[in-house]
Write a structure and sequence with these properties.
CATH superfamily of the largest domain: Transferase(Phosphotransferase) domain 1
Number of domains: 5
CATH architecture of the largest domain: Orthogonal Bundle
Strand order of the largest sheet: 26-25-33-29-34-31-32-30
Radius of gyration: 33 Å
Helix content: 10-25%
Strand content: 25-35%
CATH class of the largest domain: Mainly Alpha
CATH topology of the largest domain: Transferase(Phosphotransferase), domain 1
Largest sheet: 8 strands, mixed
Structural class: alpha+beta
Shape: globular
């Protein structure tokens, strides 16, 4: 009997040795965990909180490798490896390659159904696989350097110490992914992570539609703005880190004995749970319940969602519903510098910050001034409300997904017109009476003044109209143009007398201002500068050409105005300004994902094809650049600024000029040097824009430090070294489709080839962009010189690049 007992002890001892060996692998490819119908091997964390092994969820017949709480029943799984590739029997084995440090799951046939995607930087070093007390399964080398960890690949559960968000060094984006159902770990339709556009915020995304389903909000220094319960929570706390390493969100337990987890449910809700040792169950910490206002943008733009006996949507103050949809529109357009003020809202979940701007150093008072100085700014709030408070957060255009909270929340300041603000004030009777008397007394004087002023304006207007009518009479009579003529004073009033606050930018023609006509229509006004190198000829040229052009990717000219020395062009207003405003800005560039960038490139191509081939005239733009590509409210591109454009006969292919006009960095060699231009000149400029959009960097001003190349040269060098993907803008967090980006780089290089005859025409480019044409190999781009062996003079040339992108005029050599 004793011998049998001793034998049992020996067998137990040998089993422990065998299990221990699965944790310290110094030889290649050994089993860490073996599945078995009667005996399932597992890994257990140091103190026994977590266990890893194969399991079957619910009534399923599938087997998965997972991690769960060891002593909690029923089984509570926190991580699954092979979610998309389940085993259908008990033959699974988790193996560790001792040479490479690679974990893999193999089925009964030896086929690999899942593997970790990290391996040793220096193979043939001893490795160890461990299950940590945090629930993190890790692979480490002999020097205890981390090779791989399960925390980098979350399932549907967030554990303390696990980070969600983007690692800016590696580009890895960690998100939770829901299960298909409570008993099926197959990837579900919802994901939970950090949206890094604008001010980073927590969002739940419906992966089927790629649209936001729920938005917890941004971090305000104390909590996530949509989760006010975090402020008063005594058991846990949240951390939100934004630095050069990355943007991360995590939860922490304030007591080491507290078991805490946050789970993304199959129906798209995020819940935080704490284990009750007393009741032996998971207690929901928050949210305790969900209301209909949690749904993203439920009420539409410029609304507040209020919860009472029923859901209630209410337009923001100064806005009114148009009853045709859920959107609310302003009753009175913002006056920009005409006395706009702010309406304070308290206890708010702040609106969507994906299109916001923020600065950690600006005070709340300075924040208000910044918003007033920008005509597109619609609201502001304090960035950090902890301590004494600091930072500035600005919103532009529509306010989306804002709701009132019963507790927590923060102050929000909505920009309103002086008229809207006065309507909201509770005027006292006495004040009304005094104001009435004052108004009554001044009415007679005012009416007399208006009559006199009106008579003068009428006389002045008639003279202006007469002069303007005579100026364009011959053109209109011949059918050359069909364009409204605007009164100068009307445009002056619309732009607040060309106020600096209304100024949108500056070009070779002169400054551009935003204006609002009496009917509320927004316009952009180009005003010829008295110091501009472009004059009446360019003004007439732009009017004559663009008045005849109608295309969705060309900006629409609404009219013009000429009075004495004043020359104005009135365009439709593009709410998102120009392409360079986004792609060359470190924060705004994140608003343009790859799908939108490709869409913009295709839109520019269609606009050029129309100019070159499909319009009534063959038109060469001659000044195509990112600042001359405007973006409408839907980020659709529209080519603008036709002051330097030239119209060709249908049988004419090229021309020469002694007066070269355009922008350095976008001019092709034959035009900059010899004054020769053709449709291939625009193709070259288009190619530069394509490479700028893909890289997020300017051709002019970019200088590769090792070879002193411009952007075109740098792209070409990467191409011939077969490393074109190194050109890609790393700030875009969309998943990269290498083949598609590769194709766009290829097309960009074809368009900037040195010889114009080698460049494709725009009809071929459009086919290439749509994948309908085989791409030939590109040749060397224009202005390419490899200065890798040059002396210090090349470095000085590199530093001498100018960032001024105004259109220039020079004499051709």
């Amino acid at each position: 009997m004793q011998s049998f007992e001793m034998l049992g002890v020996c067998i137990l001892f040998l089993s422990l040795i065998t299990m221990s060996s699965t944790l310290d692998m110094t030889t290649p490819t050994q089993a860490v965990i073996k599945d078995g119908k009667n005996e399932n091997e597992t890994l257990v964390s140091t103190k026994g909180t977590f266990e890893a092994g194969f399991f079957t969820p619910g009534n399923s017949n599938n087997r998965y490798l997972g991690i769960w709480y060891k002593n909690i029943s029923p089984i509570t799984v926190v991580w699954v490896a092979n979610k998309g590739a389940p085993l259908n029997d008990y033959s699974g084995v988790l193996e560790l390659d001792g040479d490479q440090g690679l974990l893999s799951i193999k089925d009964g046939t030896g086929a690999t159904i899942w593997s970790s995607n990290a391996s040793l930087a220096q193979p043939n070093k001893p490795v160890v696989v461990q299950l940590l007390e945090s629930g993190n399964m890790v692979v480490k080398d002999g020097l205890k350097n981390l090779v791989w960890q399960s925390f980098d690949y979350p399932d549907d559960t967030l554990l303390p110490g696990m980070k969600l968000g983007r690692d800016l060094k590696t580009g890895q984006n960690r998100t939770l992914r829901s299960w298909k159902s409570w008993e099926d770990p197959t990837p579900g339709k919802f994901s939970f992570g950090v949206d890094t556009h604008g001010l980073p915020q927590l969002v739940i995304t419906n992966e089927d539609s790629k649209k936001t389903a729920y938005r917890a909000g941004s971090w305000n220094g104390l909590s996530v703005t949509g989760l006010p319960e975090e402020i008063t929570d005594q058991f846990t706390k949240s951390l939100f880190v934004m630095n050069q390493q990355g943007v991360f969100y995590e939860i922490q337990s304030l007591n080491s004995s507290t078991l805490l987890r946050s789970r993304l449910s199959p129906d798209g809700y995020q819940v935080r749970l704490i284990w009750s040792y007393q009741n032996k169950k998971w207690d929901m910490q928050f949210p305790g319940s969900f209301d209909v206002c949690e749904t993203y943008d439920l009420c539409g733009p410029n609304n507040i969602c209020l919860v009472g006996p029923t859901k209630h949507c209410e337009c923001l103050r100064g806005f009114k519903s148009n009853f045709t949809d859920s959107a609310c529109a302003r009753t009175t357009p913002l006056g920009c510098d005409k006395g706009d003020t702010f309406q304070k809202y308290e206890r708010m979940k702040l609106p969507d910050t994906s299109s916001s701007w923020y600065d950690e150093t600006v005070s709340l008072q300075e924040c208000e001034k910044l918003c007033l100085s920008n005509c597109s700014c619609t609201a502001y709030a304090q960035l950090n409300i902890s301590g004494t408070g600091s930072g500035c957060l600005l919103w532009f255009f529509n306010i989306v997904d804002m709701r009132a909270l019963s507790k927590g929340g923060q102050d929000f300041y909505l920009r309103v017109t002086s008229v809207a603000a006065s309507e909201l004030q509770d005027h006292r009777f006495k004040r009304k009476k005094i104001a009435g008397i004052a108004i009554g007394c001044s009415c007679a004087i005012f009416l007399v003044a208006i009559a006199v002023l009106g008579l003068k304006c009428w006389i002045r207007g008639e003279k202006i109209k007469h002069r303007e009518t005579n100026y364009w009479k011959n053109k209109s009579k011949n059918g050359d143009i069909d364009l409204p003529i605007f009164d100068f004073m009307l445009i002056s009033d619309a732009t607040n007398n060309f106020s600096e606050r209304n100024k949108l930018g500056q070009g070779g023609f002169g400054p551009v201002y935003k204006g609002i006509l009496l009917d509320g229509q927004e316009i952009a006004v180009k005003r010829l500068s008295k110091t501009s190198r472009q004059g009446l000829d360019e003004f007439k040229n732009e009017v004559m050409l663009i008045a005849k052009l109608q295309h969705r990717n060309l900006v629409k000219l609404l009219g013009c105005s000429i009075q004495q020395d004043e020359k104005l062009l009135i365009y439709e207003f593009m709410s998102n300004r120009s392409l360079d405003y986004f792609i060359f800005d470190s924060k705004r560039c994140t608003l343009l994902g790859w799908a939108k960038r490709f869409e913009i490139i295709r839109g520019i191509a269609r606009g050029l094809l129309y100019l070159h081939q499909d319009s009534r005239l063959k038109i060469i733009h001659r000044d195509l650049k990112t600042s001359n590509v405007l973006l409408d409210s839907n980020m659709n591109p529209k080519i603008s600024d036709f002051g330097m454009a030239r119209a060709f006969g249908l049988d004419q292919d090229e021309a020469n000029t002694n007066r070269v006009m355009g922008t350095y960095g976008y001019m092709p060699p034959e035009y900059a040097v010899h004054g020769s231009f053709s449709v291939k000149s625009d193709v070259f400029s288009f190619g530069v824009i394509v490479l700028e959009i893909i890289s997020g960097r300017k051709n002019r001003g970019f200088c590769e430090p090792h070879h002193h190349l411009n952007l075109l040269g740098h792209a070409w060098k990467l191409w011939i070294e077969k490393k074109p993907m190194k050109l890609v803008d790393e700030s875009v967090d969309d998943p990269i489709v290498p083949s598609e980006i590769f194709r766009y780089i290829h097309i960009g290089l074809l368009c900037v080839q040195h010889k114009p005859e080698d460049r494709p025409d725009m009809s071929s480019v459009v086919l290439m962009l749509n994948g309908e044409k085989i791409l030939p190999e590109p040749s060397q781009p224009g202005f390419y010189t490899d200065n890798s062996t040059t002396t210090d003079s090349s470095s000085r040339n590199c530093e001498a690049y100018s960032l001024n992108e105004m259109s220039n005029t020079l004499e051709a050599r």
